[in-house]
Design brief:
single chain; 10-stranded mixed β-sheet; 13 helices; Transposase Inhibitor Protein From Tn5, Chain A, domain 1; alpha+beta; globular; 433 residues
């Protein structure tokens, strides 16, 4: 998928035989979405060694076109009027550099239907929201080599059981608040956060969020302090501490431009906050959550076009979504490492045979000036990304290569690598079927 930039089985297979093999792989009952997801983190743990890692998790809906006569076995998503697959993913990101280090874990599934029991009346173990806790708990094993882990999530993860069961000494939590929680002193969280004294203002960058929501900068005011949130009366929380001491950070935009919606984040974290500089650092870590939204965009409309797949069964579409999540992660790693900031190895993305082809190809892509030479260490991901960008039409000047350039370059590289394999077979006098 990475090299072909598609989820279409015909294009992935490259021939009728290849298409059939890809279809049989997805149809094989011994190949499960759970096994594919388990393989997401194969290279992630070693890449996180000694780092402070932001373990960013979120969910996305993958909408597939259906009709009443052709549901493909897909369950309802959204408000129940559309059908598709859900993907929950956790992404490891270096807290200092923002480099994507790989996938940690998650799940891909299709709902069996609308649950007859309302959400709040079901035990946590029977709700989809348990994935926020399960994914974080599994991450403790995958991210064991890391020096420090901060689980970062948006408002959907804001429930007491996560705050009360996940954090450990070197495994912290940072999430945006959804509920105006009751505090131990009888007050409410939102009022307490608003009453903290202002701790300064800064200008932060907000990325584009699609048509009609371009990127912009915002001047925000910071407030922070300690709160003790009270345990809710829900039965699932009965075995947890009666209250939890957390740090609250509030950032509110001052004078938003025009008709733009004012930014207002209320964050809770288990990290200690000694001063305003530490509070701004918390805000910066939360801003990195945008990377996982980029991951989902690359899976869908801005990359692999997963939602266009015509595969006929929900079971195979779930597997395809799990594979596409990994491919999208590799895409992001390749684009990020174009300047060599993280010095990741090319083996994080390419096979040994592909790296060998890259080594043979690299000198032919260089020009006469210093800016047209590949100065990255051979065998690094930045070195490979430079080659792919050149194949995609980048001239080493003007702005850095973007996803479209890398997409073209990967398609071109795949064709070159395939041709080189054929040439090697011919030189060995091997009969090609």
């Amino acid at each position: 998928m990475v090299s072909r930039q598609t989820v279409c089985l015909r294009r992935l297979g490259g021939s009728r035989g290849g298409e059939l093999r890809a279809g049989r792989f997805l149809a094989n009952p011994r190949v499960t979405a759970e096994q594919i997801v388990a393989g997401w983190s194969q290279l992630t743990g070693p890449a996180c060694a000694g780092r402070h890692v932001l373990a960013i998790q979120d969910s996305t809906e993958v909408r597939f076109p259906t009709t009443a006569q052709r549901r493909r076995g897909l369950g309802p998503i959204g408000h129940g009027n559309i059908h598709g697959v859900l993907v929950h993913a956790m992404l490891a990101v270096d807290a200092d550099s923002g480099a994507c280090l790989g996938l940690v874990g998650g799940a891909a599934w299709s709902r069996a239907g609308v649950h007859p029991v309302p959400h709040r009346e079901r035990p946590l173990a029977e709700r989809e929201s348990v994935r926020w806790i399960e994914t974080a708990q599994r991450a403790k094993q995958v991210l064991q080599p890391a020096a420090l882990v901060t689980v970062v999530a948006d408002r959907e993860s804001d429930f007491y059981a996560l705050w009360g069961s996940v954090p450990e000494a070197d495994f912290q939590v940072l999430a945006r608040v959804m509920k105006d929680r009751l505090l131990d002193d009888g007050g409410k969280l939102f009022a307490a956060a608003a009453a903290f004294p202002p701790a300064g203002r800064q200008r932060i960058t907000l990325p584009a969020r699609g048509p009609g929501q371009p990127g912009r900068t915002a001047v925000v005011e910071l407030r922070y302090g300690t709160v003790a949130i009270r345990r809710p009366d829900h039965a699932d929380d009965a075995g947890l501490p009666p209250s939890l001491s957390l740090r609250a950070v509030e950032v509110r935009e001052i004078d938003p431009p025009g008709e733009a919606e004012a930014l207002h984040w209320r964050l809770l974290t288990t990290h200690s906050i000694a001063d305003a500089a530490a509070a701004w650092k918390i805000v910066g870590w939360y801003q990195q959550r945008w990377i996982i939204e980029q991951l989902f965009r690359v899976m869908k409309s801005q990359g692999l076009q997963l939602e266009d797949s015509q595969i006929a069964t929900a079971e195979r579409l779930v597997k395809l979504a799990a594979i596409a999540t990994k491919a999208a992660c590799i895409d992001i790693q390749l684009t990020q490492e174009r300047e060599g900031k993280d010095q990741a190895p090319a083996a994080n993305v390419f096979t040994p045979a592909e790296i060998d082809t890259m080594a043979a190809l690299s000198p032919t892509l260089e020009g006469n000036t210093d800016r047209q030479r590949n100065l990255h260490p051979p065998g690094s991901l930045a070195w490979a990304a430079w080659c792919i960008a050149r194949l995609g039409g980048w001239n080493c000047y003007y702005k850095p290569p973007g996803p479209i350039t890398f997409r073209r370059g990967m398609e071109y590289f795949h064709a070159i690598h395939h041709g080189r394999k054929l040439e090697m077979l011919l030189q060995r006098d091997v009969r090609i079927p």
